[in-house]
Design a protein that fits this description.
This protein is mainly alpha-helical and 106 residues long. The chain has seven helices and no strands.
């Protein structure tokens, strides 16, 4: 049985999470996102991010809506908004992974 891209990525993420050194480094990076507030226009920030992550207009609107609903205008708030958007109705399972691929690349 051939594994798909998302399955392989999930396996790699899990393996990295189980490595204590890598997990601690990831945790520090995640904690730092709570201190970095969005500067300027949040609408523009989500538009630029949407272009980088190849999000369609509906997905960008959903990220912005979830960012506003969450009330956290930090990078951590953006991550949560993207996570919420991915958890909402999406076209396909593979499409739900698009934001995470972009975030990992960032």
């Amino acid at each position: 049985m051939r594994r798909s891209g998302p399955t392989i990525r999930a396996r790699d993420i899990l393996a990295a999470a189980l490595d204590n050194g890598r997990f601690q480094a990831w945790l520090q990076r995640l904690q730092a996102t709570t201190e970095h507030k969005l500067e300027g226009d949040p609408v523009n920030a989500i538009e630029v991010l949407g272009q980088k992550l190849a999000l369609n207009l509906e997905e960008r609107a959903s990220v912005l809506r979830n960012l506003i609903d969450g009330g956290d205008l930090s990078r951590f708030g953006v991550i949560n908004a993207i996570t919420r958007t991915a958890a909402e109705a999406v076209e396909s399972y593979d499409r739900a992974w698009v934001p995470y691929e972009g975030l990992v690349a960032m």
